[in-house]
Amino acid sequence: MASKAILGEEINKETESLYKKEKKLGEGTYAVVYLGHHIRTNRKVAIKKIKLGNMRSGLDMSAIREVKALRELRHPNVIELIDVFSHKTNLNLVLEFLDTDLENVIKDKSLVFMPADIKSWMMMALRGLDHCHKCWLLHRDLKPNNFLIASDGQLKLADFGLAREFGDVKRAMTSQTVTRWYRAPELLLGATNYTGSIDIWAMGCIFAELSLRAPYLPGASDLEQLTTILRARGTPTEDEWPGMMKLPTGYNFEKFPKPQFSDLFRGSSEDAVDLMNKMLTFNPVQRLSAADALQHPYFRNLPRPTAPAKLPRPRQTVVDEEEEAAADANRKRQFQEAFDDALSATDADRRQAVEPVAKKMDLRISSPA
Amino acid sequence: MTRLSLRNPLLTPEQIVQSPSQRQGMSQTLELDLRAYGCHLVEAAGIVLRVPQVVMASAQVLFQRFYYLASFQDYPLRGTVLGALFLACKVEESPKSIRSIINVVDIIIKRDRGYPEIVTDGYDAEYYDLKNEMVIGEMQILRRLGFNVQVELPYGLLVNYLRCLELTEHPLIPQLSWNYLNDLLRTPVYVCFQPETIACGVIYLAARKCGVSLPASPPWWIVFDANEEDIKQVARAAVALHERSRLRIMPLDSDELEMYLQGSLDDHINAIRHTRSESMASTI
Q1: What is the pLDDT of residues B229-275, one digit of tens each?
Q2: Which residue range(s) make up the domain with A351?
Q3: Where would you tag: which of A69, A219, A366, B140 has the fewest CB atoms within 10 A of its CB?
């Protein structure tokens, strides 16, 4: 089985014919996502189309990173890359279809979270993250809306556009990573060498956010983020975080006292606050690893984590009108695409490309001068 | 599942027998020379750009893979070299700017051809053409390879195997076999065999050169998932490469390819070298 991978483009057409695109779901920085299904099994999939055609300075690094990372990972709590195929000048990633994300769940105020629900989400998230770290990959962009939720309630880590391998001490990595509110203090101080501990900090923030139902450390700017952290967590002493001052932008910070965490997290049990504190330890060396976090008593104590299928989910907000409008926009876009393709082709090709679409849409096109 | 395998994709027997370039009428010798020259450019540029060795090696493998899916006639050499380097730098997390890759490759070509070594101006049409070639080259590689741009290399395996065979202290074998790995990047070996076989092949050859005998019953390579026939093929490819001489002037785009086939490329290059040197002399 191992050496069966064959080099070839032929495989593309074969793969492409397995799937059918249905409608557009959304648009990202470098890709458009469509809903589709596997023709034979009828399995729902998300097809992420990466545009290569009109890229002036080559392919976006994040697209490369994403494919690279997802090829390596395979875990129930990590989004599955099912297939890859290219079509003309587009690259298509076939991903598992997941209908909502953790951010939607947190924001839906009609949902009530039980402590057991939070435990279940944290457990799934940490398992997925542990798998990444065991494969020597850093996610580097953990936040609630990158945790997608499958129809059976499983939480899945997604969006590996910033992921990269780690472990090579000699190679510097950028400290400008992770969405600000979830960025670890060592990154804010300009560290260029870090480990999985930056992902754990983000997980700690998400843990707190699940309990508070609001972002825990919402800094308004990069500079203010650090102050926000220090105010919320208390300024670390030299003993707590030796070497802090040696980081590129370390300086003498205002001394904030350590607050009483149990006051803020009233709804959380003692073991939950303990785990959260260990995940939000200032010293990255002492911060818990994903594997250690999963061994924490919090996960063994009662209440038991809720079964994924029984977790709260946001109400499906499928409005027919909306879908109709989306379908309409989709048809228009298809025409536009065919038209764009035709612009770069010869006259004969052009007519051939545009006519069938135009006919289908009952549009009349003037013959090219 | 096999489609998303992390193993290196290999050629099918049909793909090995006739490459796209040969199908379009190119001789096998010319194709091998073009492959070797392209890899030379990638390697030389990588050294000047100070990228890690994995980048150079991956870029060469991407380059080799590409020309089993597309022909030199349709996709000229220079664009693919630029694109492969650009892409490999990104895949291996050592991104380089478009500008520096173009400058370096451009200067190496000029040096090989004996042109005056002047850096192309960033606003020059020549620079824009090169940049275009590079972006298109990258896109074509991605498209043809169906985004299968990961390359598994045998360097790490080689070190492990040498350790197992207690050869790490030998004065010649480690360096010699490492060098063979580098040289083999210029041959189709990396698209025909998995890294284990390649690592065994170079150890086999290096040990023979140095007159060191390795365990024969059972043969040592069995432990490393290789078979005798394959490793001998790898060794043969390395020997064959050493018997070829390196060419400095190879056609880089379709116009030059045509001239090369008509036998007028050398004259053309000489003429350019002459005029460029003269115009440089007059500006000084």
Answers
A1: 999 999 998 888 777 766 778 888 888 888 888 888 888 888 888 88
A2: 335-369
A3: A366
Using a cut of 0.90, tell me whether the model's pTM lies above it: no
CA angle, residues A17, A18, A19, in degrees to nearest 5: 95
User: Which residues in chain B are contacts of A166 at CB distance < 8 A?
Assistant: none
Q: Which of A74, A97, A120 is a domain's end point?
A: A97
Q: What residue segments make up the domains of chain B, in order of their start?
A: 27-144, 155-243
Task: Please indicate, yes or no, whether residues A362 and A257 belong to a single structural domain of this protein.
Answer: no
Sort out which chain A residues have CB atoms less than 8 A from B150's CB and list them: 68, 71
Return the sign of the alpha-carbon dihedral for residues A322, A323, A329, A332: negative
Task: Give pLDDT tens digits for B58-68.
Answer: 999 999 999 99
CATH of domain B155-243: 1.10.472.10
Nearest-10 crossing angle of helices B77-91, B125-144: 70
Task: Please confirm, yes or no, whether A222 is among the known catalytic residues.
Answer: no
Largest interatomic CA distance in chain A: 78
B6 with A83: Cβ contact below 8 A: no
> Looking at residue A150, which CATH number applies to its domain?
1.10.510.10
Cβ-Cβ contacts under 8 Å, B68 against chain A: 7
Homologous superfamily of domain range B27-144: Cyclin-like (1.10.472.10)
Q: Could A55 and B191 be called an inter-chain contact, meaning their C-beta atoms sit closer than 8 Å? A: no
Q: What is the pLDDT along chain A (369 residues), one digit of tens a residue?
A: 233 445 555 566 777 778 888 888 887 667 888 998 888 888 889 888 877 655 566 777 778 888 888 888 889 999 998 888 777 667 788 889 888 889 888 988 888 888 899 999 999 999 999 999 999 999 999 999 899 999 888 999 988 888 888 877 777 788 777 888 999 998 888 888 888 999 999 999 999 999 988 899 998 888 889 889 988 888 888 888 888 888 887 777 778 888 888 778 887 888 999 999 999 999 999 999 999 999 999 999 888 899 888 888 887 654 455 666 676 677 677 767 766 665 555 555 555 655 665 565 555 555 443
Q: How far is CA A346 from the centre of its chain?
A: 41
Contacts of A8 in chain B (CB under 8 A): 9, 12, 15, 69, 146
Considering only the beta carbons, identify the residue of A56, A68, A83 that sits closest to B91.
Answer: A68
Q: Identify the residue among A3, A14, A166 best suited for mutation to test binding to B, counting B beta carbons within 10 A and taking the highest.
A: A3
Mark whether A234 and A267 lie in a shared domain: yes
In angstroms, the CA B263 to CA B270 distance is: 13
Q: Write out the two tokens for B65.
A: 């893979």
Contact A58/B149, CB-based, under 8 Å?
no
Domain count, chain A: 3
A7 in B contact zone (CB under 8 Å):
yes
Where do the DSSP E strands lie in A97-157?
100-101, 137-138, 147-149, 155-157
Interchain CB contact of B147 with A (< 8 Å): yes
Burial class (CB within 10 angstroms; exposed 0-12, middle 13-18, buried 19+) of B42: buried
Contacts of B118 (CB under 8 A, 6+ apart): B110, B280
Cross-chain residue pair B148–A7, CB shorter than 8 Å: yes
Please tell me the total number of residues recorded for chain B in this structure.
284
